[in-house]
């Protein structure tokens, strides 16, 4: 009997334009050629060739692809989502590289930066020639960015930044960091060249998740910047939170890529692995697991398609992105864990991607807002009552 791939079960490609499908095929091909043969080694070694990958992704127009002008592709939100899905099917760390570059660092400069900042940073970032990072999270302030301790004070015509940022993707290799700091007039953003005196970045080692990703701590020791480094359009905490909404949209799609890769691996394994004289795919309990996982994957994909359509129509709201991130990451990690059971002992082997995806999704579950934070965002919208304070 013929088999269908998990995301072909409901024939949902009819919801995509020919351009979307072509772009998806290109990204899938580069992941198959450039990432899959090496990612298990990158993960085991705790390293990833960020600059080489960025240059390749830049040639394909994947960096800041949903932005317009300055060398950016101006793609639809749905096309960007599909790219994130294929990237994370390779590895969550690879999707994080693209997401942080485009949806956090580049988006912040594109939305809130001066024309001079846009001209200076966006074209080389779109080409993958310059790497960006986004400094919001601090050692003592993750889910509560309003408590940030990093300060920026005026000194004549300059600003002096002091503080530290933690768990910053791309920081050890970045050329520019978008740093958020508290001032006498509220939270402000700054485009900080990483070679500025007083800026240091330290690679975070011994991670058990997102090992194929460059993660660092940024220390700001009386970093002096001209006022031209300040993002003039960024006033208040809403600015960095809007950037997080952009990044969360990519996660809504990306998590599905990790889940799909796990499910396809489990199906292939179940069809070839024999126990008690027959493939384990022929056992009812195995088929029940596969069917339930395929259903959740389809539902998550339908949700992502709907949010993509809302975004392309200019009607996507932050709480809707929270619904997508909460559901799709939660279901993706459940799928990864269930697929591990189908592979049995082989499920923990680096020969298969399932445990790597499961470990990575533990980080995806936490960053850009924990599941609990998104539950409260949705709860506040349903009740009109904030549970954050």
From TrEMBL:
Residues 133-223 form the Acyl-CoA oxidase/dehydrogenase middle domain. GO terms for molecular function: fatty-acyl-CoA binding; flavin adenine dinucleotide binding; glutaryl-CoA dehydrogenase activity. It comes from the Bacteria. It holds the Pfam family Acyl-CoA_dh_M. Residues 235-382 form the Acyl-CoA dehydrogenase/oxidase C-terminal domain. The keyword Cell wall biogenesis/degradation does not apply. Residues 17-129 form the Acyl-CoA dehydrogenase/oxidase N-terminal domain. Its cofactor is FAD. The keyword DNA-binding does not apply. GO terms for biological process: fatty acid beta-oxidation using acyl-CoA dehydrogenase; fatty-acyl-CoA biosynthetic process. Keywords: FAD, Flavoprotein, Oxidoreductase, Transit peptide. InterPro entries: Acyl-CoA_Oxase/DH_mid-dom, Acyl-CoA_Oxase/DH_mid-dom_sf, AcylCo_DH-like_C, AcylCo_DH/oxidase_C, AcylCoA_DH/ox_N, AcylCoA_DH/ox_N_sf, AcylCoA_DH/oxidase_NM_dom_sf, Glutaryl-CoA_DH_mitochondrial. Belongs to the acyl-CoA dehydrogenase family. PANTHER family: GLUTARYL-COA DEHYDROGENASE, MITOCHONDRIAL. This is Glutaryl-CoA dehydrogenase. It comes from Asanoa ishikariensis.
């Amino acid at each position: 009997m013929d088999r269908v791939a998990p995301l072909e079960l409901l024939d949902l490609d009819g919801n995509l334009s020919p351009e979307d499908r072509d772009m998806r095929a290109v990204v899938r091909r580069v992941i198959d050629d450039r990432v899959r043969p090496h990612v298990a080694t990158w993960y085991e070694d705790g390293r990833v060739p960020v600059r080489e990958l960025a240059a390749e992704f830049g040639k394909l127009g994947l960096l800041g692809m949903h932005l317009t002008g300055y060398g950016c592709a101006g793609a639809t939100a749905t096309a960007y989502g599909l790219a994130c899905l294929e990237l994370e099917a390779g590895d969550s760390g690879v999707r994080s590289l693209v997401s942080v570059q485009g949806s956090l660092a580049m988006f912040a400069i594109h939305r809130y930066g001066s024309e001079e900042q846009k001209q200076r940073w966006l074209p080389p970032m779109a080409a993958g020639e310059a790497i960006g990072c986004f400094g919001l999270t601090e050692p003592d302030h993750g889910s509560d960015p309003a408590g940030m301790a990093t300060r920026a004070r005026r000194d004549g015509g300059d600003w002096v930044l002091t503080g530290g940022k933690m768990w910053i993707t791309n920081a050890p290799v970045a050329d520019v960091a978008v740093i958020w700091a508290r001032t006498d007039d509220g939270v402000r953003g700054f485009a900080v060249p990483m070679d500025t005196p007083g800026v240091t970045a330290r690679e975070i080692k011994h991670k058990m998740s997102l090992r194929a990703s460059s993660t660092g701590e940024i220390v700001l020791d009386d970093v002096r910047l001209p006022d031209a480094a300040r993002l003039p359009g960024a006033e208040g905490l809403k600015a960095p939170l809007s950037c997080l909404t952009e990044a969360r949209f990519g996660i809504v799609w990306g998590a599905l890529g990790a889940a799909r890769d796990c499910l396809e691996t489990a199906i292939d394994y179940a069809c070839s692995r024999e126990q008690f004289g027959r493939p384990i795919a022929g056992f009812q309990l195995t088929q029940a697991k596969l069917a339930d996982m395929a259903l959740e994957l389809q539902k998550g994909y339908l949700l992502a398609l709907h949010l993509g359509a809302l975004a392309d129509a200019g009607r996507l709201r932050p709480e809707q992105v929270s619904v997508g991130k909460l559901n799709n990451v939660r279901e993706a990690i459940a799928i990864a864990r269930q697929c591990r059971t189908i592979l049995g002992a082989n499920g923990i082997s680096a020969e298969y991607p399932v445990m790597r995806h499961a470990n990575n999704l533990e980080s995806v579950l936490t960053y850009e807002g924990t599941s609990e934070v998104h539950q409260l965002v949705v709860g506040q919208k349903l009740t009109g009552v904030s549970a954050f304070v």
